[in-house]
């Protein structure tokens, strides 16, 4: 899919000024330039253009609020002057997997008038006069305007294989905290930093996570209903067993009552038999007299 069409689809009936995050990964730039983006995206903070065939960032519009830019797996070899000029508030930049080969790749920070502005100075000289005498690398250009840049990724770029690569980049960019996911002491980016990045990337894709959470809630509800059914069945079975035990007690009670009645009858018979014998004995005594 062409980048311009993909950008239009990602708008989802919104106005560009309403877009805070835009992800157009794995589409295709027609000519290696940024397409479909305009200066109307004034509120854009996160932009991801991974594997879209970019070879230049020269047509990137002004994005004053952009904090995070993902342009990995493209063929960018320079043009960072446009990036520093149009996205001055970047804190995270991922250029991994691009064609940046060496720190000495000449990329002059050219003003609209075709002049080079030296950072912190009011001196302007012709680019033609300056280039033969000065080698300016793309990374050096980042230092000039990207004062807020804290994390830079250049892994899988050829430049990352150079000797003393990390030391040189940290020297050129003293504002950096992390390079390729590690600080100057080789400590990895803390989980809190990674979590913040994940939250940033949620955006429209965060809805999928919400759907998964909803599914989990439904599963829990279904599980609760199943537990209730099991409890109900167990309760009924327990009641049935209790009823049988109660019936058994009732039968035993009836048997005990019958035994007691039989005992009473036997005792009465014995008493009657005794009285009869006593009466007969008394009759014999009278006859003797």
TrEMBL record:
Positions of the U2A'/phosphoprotein 32 family A C-terminal domain? 162-180
Location(s) in or outside the cell: Cytoplasm; Nucleus
Q: Which superkingdom heads the taxonomic lineage of this protein's source?
A: Eukaryota
Gene3D superfamilies, per database record: Ribonuclease Inhibitor
A single Gene Ontology MF term assigned here is:
phosphatase inhibitor activity
UniProt-listed InterPro entries: AN32, Leu-rich_rpt, Leu-rich_rpt_4, LRR_dom_sf, U2A'_phosphoprotein32A_C
Q: Where is this region: Disordered?
A: 182-289
Please explain the role this protein plays, according to its UniProt record.
Multifunctional protein that is involved in the regulation of many processes. Histone chaperone that specifically mediates the genome-wide removal of histone H2A.Z/H2AZ1 from the nucleosome: removes H2A.Z/H2AZ1 from its normal sites of deposition, especially from enhancer and insulator regions. Not involved in deposition of H2A.Z/H2AZ1 in the nucleosome. May stabilize the evicted H2A.Z/H2AZ1-H2B dimer, thus shifting the equilibrium towards dissociation and the off-chromatin state. Inhibits activity of protein phosphatase 2A (PP2A). Does not inhibit protein phosphatase 1. May play a role in cerebellar development and synaptogenesis.
The biological processes this protein is annotated with in GO are: chromatin organization; regulation of apoptotic process
Q: Name one GO cellular component term.
A: cytoplasm
Q: What is this protein called?
A: Acidic leucine-rich nuclear phosphoprotein 32 family member
